[in-house]
Amino acid sequence: MIETLRRFLAGQQEPFHSDSKKPRGAVAVLFREQADDLWLLMIKRRENPQDPWSGQMAFPGGHSDPEDRTLLDTATREAFEEIGIDIGNQSFLGCLHNVQPKNAPMVIAPFLFLISGEFHPKTSREAVEVLWVPMSFLFNPKNVTSFRVPVGRREISMGCYLYLNHLIWGMSFRIIQEIISIVTRVP
Q1: CA-CA distance, 87 to 79, in Å (whole number)?
Q2: At residue 145, what are phi and psi to the nearest 5 degrees?
Q3: I need a surface site. Which of 74, 138, 164, 167 has the fewest CB within 10 A?
């Protein structure tokens, strides 16, 4: 699976261009190989009224700051701040398509990495929990479900996973679905 991602993303080593005037951000999508599976690192964001993803499962990441020269710098800084990893020392796989969250006016660039060696992620003021999710769970279509989310005066159905009582949905769900799409369509 990781080699399929590596081959597919070899041609996408930079974030996709965006003509949007919305602010930019980046997330670090981190994998590790262990026990005959590929595992995906997710965080549970701390409750914060200023955070549109408050309390949700997410990938380490956030808004680009003026000191970030590139979106890769943003992903690198955020991964270090939120879980204590220097992704500059890890194997960079490539970038996925930009994601535009439905609850915040911004454009997010996902950067994928394979973690090698010992790594003990830590929690932070932004990440209250770190969770490794097996890709074998995410690949099983029986594990995809949905729930209803209030949007204005109506409710809409959103795809999601429920893993160990953690709801994975929204932008994170869409990023995972793109990863699955890549792996299942590439020979």
Answers
A1: 7
A2: -135, -165
A3: 164
* pTM over 0.70, yes/no: yes
For residues 74 and 26, the answer to whether their CB atoms sit within 8 Å is yes
What are the Cα distances from residue 155, in Å, to 33, 149, 181? 38, 5, 27
| 3-state helix, strand and coil shares in percent for the chain, rounded to the nearest 5 | 25, 35, 35
The domains found in the chain, sorted by start residue, are: 2-132+171-185 (3.90.79.10)
Residue 170 phi/psi, 5-degree rounding, is 65, -135
Secondary structure (3-state) at 108? strand
Percent of the chain having pLDDT more than 70?
97
Q: Given strand 166-169, what is the order of strands in its sheet? A: 144-151, 154-163, 166-169
Give the model's confidence band at 1: pLDDT under 50 very low, under 70 low, under 90 confident, else very high.
confident
- The beta strand positions in 23-60, using DSSP E, are 24-34, 37-45, 57-58
